[in-house]
Amino acid sequence: MTGLLLEWLIKIAVVFAILLTAVAYLSYMERRVAGWIQIRVGPNRVGPLGLLQPLADGLKFIFKEDIVPLKANKLLYIVAPAAAIIPALMTFIVIPYGSEVVLFGKQIALHVTRINVALLYVLGLTSLSVYGIVLAGWSSNNKYSLMGGLRASAQLISYELALGMAIIGVLVLTGSLDLVNIVEAQRGYWFGFLPKWNIFLQPVAFVIFFLAALAETNRVPFDLPEAEAELVAGYFTEYSSMKFAMFFMSEYLNLITSCSLATTLFFGGWTGPGVNSYPWLSIVYFVIKVFLLIFLFMWIRFTFPRFRYDQLMRLGWKFLLPTAIANVVVTSTVLLLVN
Questions:
Q1: Is residue 39 part of a domain?
Q2: Is the residue at 262 inside a domain?
Q3: By CB neighbour count within 10 A (0-12 exposed, 13-18 middle, 19+ buried), where does 237 fall?
Q4: Does 20 fall in a domain?
Q5: How confident is the prediction along the chain (339 residues), in pLDDT tens digits per residue?
Q6: Is 109 helix (H, G, I), strand (E, B) or coil?
Q7: Any idea what DSSP says for residue 94?
Q8: Number of folded domains in the chain?
Q9: Does some domain include residue 9?
Q10: Adjacent-strand bridge partners of 246
């Protein structure tokens, strides 16, 4: 029991360290992608190729003055950033980021923990993150912040339904809520060359999941809770210093989680050629797939304009949700006929 507890603690420490480092460099990557798309330079002053820019940004946030509005509800104002970032950090502990490897003579499964309702756990925690946003908007005693918080709650409720219904198509195919089982079900090939990824059986579900994930993470073109032209900066208008940085970090953590979940559900997770012989390759495959999806998120940000709020609601309720329900009905019917 002591050995298992120690293994969990080491895995948690390693995963958190990697996640926080990745969050810092995703900001660098996003600015680089923006520079590439908009034909400009991007960060290139701090360190070689600007690679130390995230460190400079972190130091800037630490030393900036922390200002609390006089009329704010101080307790909730301080709690809100933590309420946003803690669920974002906790979701990754059930994501399988590799197969099993041998380390120091011991078989190590490359996930922090495994539970048979892992998918429900992830969905539950991602839903909790909206509390941080709503509390931030309300406690700031700023009307623009309040509007951002209300928009975020309405947006999350609208797209959480479509996202959940999109996932049901995958659950019907695999018959499990355990993310490890879902990955295992995608091992192997059809016709000797085509991977058994769910994307080939559930392309409609993936498109719905991807669009809903964009809205869930408040990414362009669904970034209405923080629309600068309308709400100054939205729910975090009154935040500065490390409190602002925590909202910034939670957004990138949710982006990593969304892309990791999409990789696990639709792209075979860590599966790939040579994994049976070289288990460490599984981590490489997982990271590459997640990286490509994150790049797609960023590409979309600098390609499409922001929706109006009525367009956002119409897309979620009148198109994505009915399409997701139809996909579940068709998938279930086909499986009944085949079996």
A1: no
A2: yes
A3: buried
A4: no
A5: 676 788 888 888 999 999 999 999 999 999 999 898 888 888 888 889 889 999 999 898 888 888 888 888 889 999 999 998 999 889 989 999 998 888 877 888 888 888 999 999 998 888 888 888 888 888 988 888 888 888 888 888 889 899 999 999 999 999 899 999 999 999 988 888 899 999 999 999 999 999 999 998 888 888 877 766 666 667 888 888 888 889 889 989 999 999 999 999 999 999 989 898 888 899 999 999 999 999 999 999 888 888 888 898 999 999 999 999 999 999 999 998 987
A6: strand
A7: G
A8: 1
A9: no
A10: none
